[in-house]
Amino acid sequence: MAGKGDSMPTQEERLSTVEQTQMQVGESIKDLNHYVTMLIGTVKREEWEIREMKGSLRSIDDRLTSLEQGVNTRLGTLDARMGALEAHVGAFEQNVNTRFGTLETRMEAQDKKLDQILLSLAALTSKPDREA
């Protein structure tokens, strides 16, 4: 049984409590809406910034691809030129070796002729004069 101090709230008191609770819930919903709106704005800004970064990265990627193609083209051209230069140097070296070989052969022939002339001169100078 309920004593004198344990009285039930009246309908008016209960209605007042419900109204206060409803006002507190209303304020909480307002705060929640405010924070959700701020969060949505932040997310949209971040989304826009991410799109901008993706565009910038695509642009950088395109430039790097173009640069890579240019470098590869130039390296290919340089490689071809180096191959042609090596062929020219090889031909020049072969030509020089051939000429030096011919010159060496000629010098040996001239050397033999000079040896024969020196032998002939030595033979002539070593014989006594017969006409005297």
Return the average pLDDT rounded to an integer: 91
Terminal-residue CA separation = 183 Å
Q: What's the Cα radius of gyration?
A: 55 Å
Extended strand count: 0
Key features?
132 residues
What is the gist of this entry?
This protein is mainly α. Helices cover 88% and strands 0% of the residues.
Walk me through what this model shows.
The protein is mainly alpha-helical. It has one helix spanning 11-126. The termini are far apart. The relative contact order is 0.03.
Question: Which secondary structure elements does this structure contain, and how are they paired or packed?
Answer:
Blueprint: H1 11-126
